[in-house]
Amino acid sequence: MSEAIKGLAPEQLWDFFARIAAIPHGSKNETALASYLRLVAVNAGLAVRQDEVGNLCIAVPPSPGCDKAPAVVLQSHLDMVCEKNASVDFDFSKDVIRLVRDGDWIRAEGTSLGADNGIGIAAAMAVAVSNDILHGPLEILLTVDEETGLTGAVNLSPSLISGRILLNLDSEKSDHLCIGCAGGGGVSILLPLTMTDTPAQSTALALTLTGLRGGHSGLDIHENRANAVKLMARLVLALKEYGVLLADFQGGDKHNAIPRESFATVVLPAKQLPAAREIINTRYHAFSAEFAHESAMQMNCEETDLPAGVASGPSSAAALNLLVALPHGVLAMSRQMPGLVETSSNLASAHIRDNLLTVHNTPRSSLPQALYASMDQIAAVSSLAGGRYELETPYPGWHPNPDSKILTVLEKTYEEICGRKPERTATHAGLECGVIGEKYKGMDMISFGPDIINAHSPAEAVSIKSVATFWRILLGALRKIATGAYA
Ligand SMILES: [Zn+2]
User: Fold this and answer.
1) Of 128, 115, 114, 123, which Cα lies nearest the Cα of 38?
2) How far apart are the first and last CA of the chain?
3) 46 Cα to the center of ligand 1, angstroms
4) How far apart are CA 475 and CA 372, in angstroms?
5) Rounded CA separation 255/370 (Å)
6) CA-closest candidate to residue 119, choices 448, 482, 343, 475
7) How far is it, in rounded angstroms, from Cα 90 to Cα 83?
8) What CA–CA distances, in Å, run from 108 to 92, 98, 112, 246?
9) Which 3-state string (H, E, C) describes 165-207?
10) How far, in Å, from the CA of 367 to the mean position of ligand 1?
11) What separation in Å is there between the alpha carbon of 378 and the centre of ligand 1?
């Protein structure tokens, strides 16, 4: 047993955590861990079910006298994000995570720790095998592959669990109770461009916009960071009275990131060059004033070789109008949860390749109707510009319900144990709860956990003290539900 966890309480939880850390369990490589947990459950006399994609459900009978209590699902994900520093010699497919104790923190030596979501699994398993914890009927639901697209939750068999109260143990702030998340979709737009020869007596300009902050398209969208695709399109469109034609446009990369850089090549009559340069300068200063928080923004404009062909006047206009008209940023704030973004859209990328402009958009909302409305809006703008669009199947959000009974139970439990109120939160990103809640209608859900910092990185660490508090809150809530507080 690892020295790092020696003497830590609750002992059973930490013991499970160390065993989990000793079994490789990166995303899509959860079989060995699932087999181990299955064996533990079977040895404890518990029934185990597994669905086709590998999600595991361990049924735990109620404590004596608690069989009338409603069934509770304790849910965590089996996989972890495998990250290591380049200098560290470590093979995530076979090596044991080396636990290190660092004051109040447990971390790993040179690698991610897997406290996300190993602590959640360990807590659920410790409850499952104990004989002295009061609880009603329990189902321990352990999903595969949360970290690379929620595919375990998406493919979860609709008959694997029967409980309608779900405690998701995958949160990372011990004083928060999470009660909502965003759903999301993708809309790709394909706009064919009519190409023509580059007109005689033209000049070509290479425009670059770099140094923007970018960030996560959900978690950072409320910060009104500048979108490099949007700004470049606005800049080029501002030059239209000088006869500018679009030869190339490249901006944005990942679907879930706000574009940080963009590059365009444009062609214009040589005699218009001085006037165009002046507009570019004026616009750059206007952008700097509009986005004063983008202090590293840089715009460059250089003459370059004439391209062989350019988009025609109408095609250039359609492409630029499309990019300027598409929504980007916060579209609505939540009425239930002050400060929470309810609906947003990210204009994620725009690229010209083979006479085709391809634009990707990622709208999000915790409200399904609002998500569909923003997908419709993007599709409508695409149609106005003469483009085709393709809609990705959206993944569902989790709309916050401030009247949720499980929220009341958890808030009371937290207050009794910590002597203060927890914070109600929701996140403008995807969580498994959104997907699970869509599958199992009427599921009353909440997400909580210990303090975990720097998840998904080699600096990941979990606070020992917060694990003890998290454990007390979990047991307190299970006891309350088992003794009639959830009614
Ligand atoms: Zn997680």
Assistant:
1) 128
2) 42
3) 25
4) 39
5) 20
6) 448
7) 10
8) 13, 5, 6, 51
9) EEEECCCCCCCEEEEEECEECCEEEEEECCEEECCCCEEEEEE
10) 22
11) 31
- pTM here is 0.84
Q: How far is the CA of 447 from the centre of ligand 1 (A)?
A: 11
Number of residues written out for the chain: 487
Beta-bridge mates of residue 424? 177
CB 60 within 8 A of CB 46: yes
CA of 174 to the centre of ligand 1 (A): 14
- How far is it, in rounded angstroms, from Cα 311 to Cα 323? 15
Q: Are 417 and 469 in contact (CB under 8 A)?
A: yes
Using alpha carbons only, give the angle 42, 163, 31 rounded to the nearest 5 degrees.
40
d(C-alpha 182, C-alpha 355), whole Å: 35
pLDDT digit string, tens, across residues 302-316: 999 999 999 999 999
Closest CA to 266 of 229, 240, 298: 240
Distance between CA 314 and CA 383 in Å, rounded?
Answer: 15
- In three-state form (DSSP H/G/I as H, E/B as E, the rest C), the secondary structure along 402-416 is CCCHHHHHHHHHHHH
Q: Say how far residue 25 (Cα) sits from the centre of its chain.
A: 20
**pLDDT tens column, 69-78:** 999 999 999 9
Q: What is the distance in A from the centroid of ligand 1 to the CA of 360?
A: 27
Beta strands in 186-307 (DSSP E): 187-192, 195-197, 202-210, 245-251, 262-269, 298-304
pLDDT over 70, % of the chain: 100
d(CA 41, CA 31): 15
Q: What are the tokens at 462?
A: 């979990």
Residue 256 has pLDDT above 90, yes or no: no
Secondary structure E strands in 419-476: 423-427, 444-447, 452-453, 461-463
The values of phi and psi at residue 128, to 5°, are -60, -40
Cβ neighbours around 223 below 10 Å, total:
12
- The residues annotated with a catalytic role in the active site are 79, 146
CA of 332 to the centre of ligand 1 (A): 27
Evaluate if residue 301 carries a pLDDT over 80.
yes
Residues 82-121 have pLDDT tens digits of 988 878 999 999 999 999 999 999 999 999 999 999 999 9
Q: Which two tokens stand for residue 21?
A: 């850390």
Distance from the alpha carbon of residue 117 to the mean position of ligand 1, in angstroms? 5
Distance 482 CA to ligand 1 centre (A): 27
CB 130 within 8 A of CB 475: no
Query: Does residue 1 register a pLDDT over 70?
Result: no
